[in-house]
Design goal:
The protein is α/β, with parallel strands linked by helices. It is built from 18 helices and 11 strands. The relative contact order is 0.09.
Length: about 500
């Protein structure tokens, strides 16, 4: 090995360590209320690193650079793109993450590296690389789901299952309980989300929701200002809810519903992940990914999507802190949408109900924002439950906790058997009239419809009414695509005739 080649590889490793430190700082920051500075620094560091390995690939490979190291750099860039999407709701960032993940997968960076390491004496190193590959595929699956790449999702799910089985067989003494649970969650999620093939959540569509032309008409009814949905907080906290990683089925459906339908200008061509059943690599031995980070993937014909803070299983204090942080930066013409899907009590636990009713003073003190109301915390059905199993008191979210945020235009969606309690917000606003969308107290009596295995019925109707109707009517997932869209078209025509009189 020449001194120049060894020096180039040492420079690469030093840049990797510096970039990893910046990545860790950016990753640990919440995806709301700022933090873009650390994200930009991390992206800049990995951009420099990426260009180095592109320009000096032959030298770095000769100096000891391995394929999985290139794959890990590309994976970090994909993670940064995905984090930017969560922070800004820019579709081009989601596309950027997909492009990098697809390139890593199709070139088999982690798979080839794990096999090479495992053939020698580095079994421990090979296992670590295999874990990297498993985590990478799980992240790729989430991005593919959000991109609605059904074929890619099916393929990746199968690959993840096969990879877990292969690793269990190769390392029989290793505990894979965590990954077994991940596969179970994935199976439940895909079964619930893919009940009707070819269907998906409703989204704003430029063909039907002519955004710019409607503003003039809307302004006639609002002489002072026109409000726009700019921010959304989406959260759910239910026992045994359908989820994959930290994305629950209910928040996933709401997330899809709060975005514009792509017009096609930033859609990427669907690539084959495999070729003749095997992973394809068309880039030669080095596996070079020829992607320019500066390439802009945008859709100028669409307005920006509202920014969305997705919070997984928050405590009450955490949720209120997030809302307060977002409201600090809310502009005068912005609407804040709050979506909460949660149970009304801690699994009907009598002990926790007793605690909640007898310790109202403690619950009041624990709430960051509360107002004095006579007998406001004495009823067992006037709150939502956000907390671990069997607890109560400080984990109860009351309507009074949200009233201070009505100083801003607020659109509140509550999906719970106790949603009726939040009617108390009406006429108690502190500055702006709040819009309340509350689920019914009693769901459909159809057997199995409101099962946790299918997500919430109310949220399902909000985000995908046709699929929800099919489920309510007992139409099974065996319905073919042609029949489904025939029903959809008939429903649309009847709705239009009803609206037009």
């Amino acid at each position: 090995m020449a001194d120049g080649e060894a020096g180039g590889y040492r420079e690469f490793k030093a840049l990797v360590e510096a970039a990893d430190r910046k990545f860790a700082r950016a990753r640990d920051l919440p995806l709301y209320g700022g933090g873009d500075h650390h994200s930009r620094k991390a992206f800049k560091a990995y951009t420099r690193l990426w260009r180095l390995q592109q320009e000096r690939r032959r030298e770095l490979v000769a100096g000891g650079l391995r394929r999985w190291e290139i794959g890990e750099v590309a994976s970090r860039i994909g993670q940064l793109y995905y984090a930017r999407y969560l922070r800004t709701a820019e579709p081009r960032s989601l596309v950027g993450a997909y492009v990098f993940y697809e390139a890593i997968y199709s070139r088999g960076y982690f798979g080839a590296a794990a096999g090479a390491e495992g053939s020698g004496g580095g079994r421990h190193q090979a296992l670590l690389i295999r874990y990297k590959e498993l985590r990478f595929i799980a992240r790729f699956l989430v991005v593919a789901m959000l991109m609605r790449r059904a074929e890619a999702v099916d393929h990746l799910a199968g690959r993840l299952r096969a990879l877990v089985e292969e690793t269990k067989a190769a390392y029989p003494k290793t505990n894979f309980k965590e990954w077994k649970q991940v596969l179970q969650e994935l199976g439940r999620f895909l079964k619930a989300d893919g009940a009707y093939k070819g269907s998906r959540s409703l989204r704003y569509d430029n063909l039907f929701d002519s955004y710019p032309s409607n503003l003039v008409s809307i302004a006639r009814f609002h002489s002072k200002r026109v409000l726009k949905l700019k921010e959304a907080v989406l959260t759910s906290y239910r026992r045994s809810e359908v989820k994959f990683t930290e994305l629950t089925l209910d928040t996933y459906r709401m997330l899809q519903c709060l975005e514009w339908e792509p017009t096609g200008s930033y859609q990427i061509a669907a690539k084959e992940l495999t070729e003749n059943g095997t992973v394809s690599d068309q880039s030669g031995p080095s596996g070079l990914i020829d992607i320019q980070l500066s390439t802009e993937i945008s859709d100028g014909s669409l307005p920006s999507n509202p920014q969305k803070a997705i919070i997984y299983h928050p405590t009450v204090s955490h949720l209120l802190a997030v809302l307060a942080t977002i409201c600090e930066e809310l502009s005068q013409d912005s609407i804040l949408l709050i979506y909460i899907s949660a149970s009304g009590c801690a699994e009907q636990n009598m002990a926790s109900q007793k605690y909640a009713s007898s310790s109202s003073s403690h619950a009041t003190a624990a709430s960051s924002f509360s107002i004095d109301k006579p007998n406001s915390h004495t009823s067992p059905d006037n709150h939502l439950w956000l907390g671990p199993r069997g607890s109560g008191g400080p984990n109860n979210l009351y309507p009074e906790d949200l009233i201070p945020f009505t100083r801003y235009p607020l659109f509140l969606v509550i999906d719970s058997e106790n949603s009726h309690a939040f009617k108390a917000i009406h006429n108690a606003e502190k500055g702006e009239a709040a819009v309340l969308l509350l689920s019914p107290r009693i769901s459909s009596a159809m057997p199995g419809v409101e099962s946790t295995g299918h997500g919430s019925q109310f949220t399902y109707f909000l985000t995908a009414p046709m699929q929800a109707f099919c489920q309510l009517a007992g139409i099974t997932s065996d319905i073919d695509t042609r029949t489904y869209f025939s029903l959809l078209w008939k429903n649309m025509k009847e709705s239009s005739a009803l609206l037009l009189g």
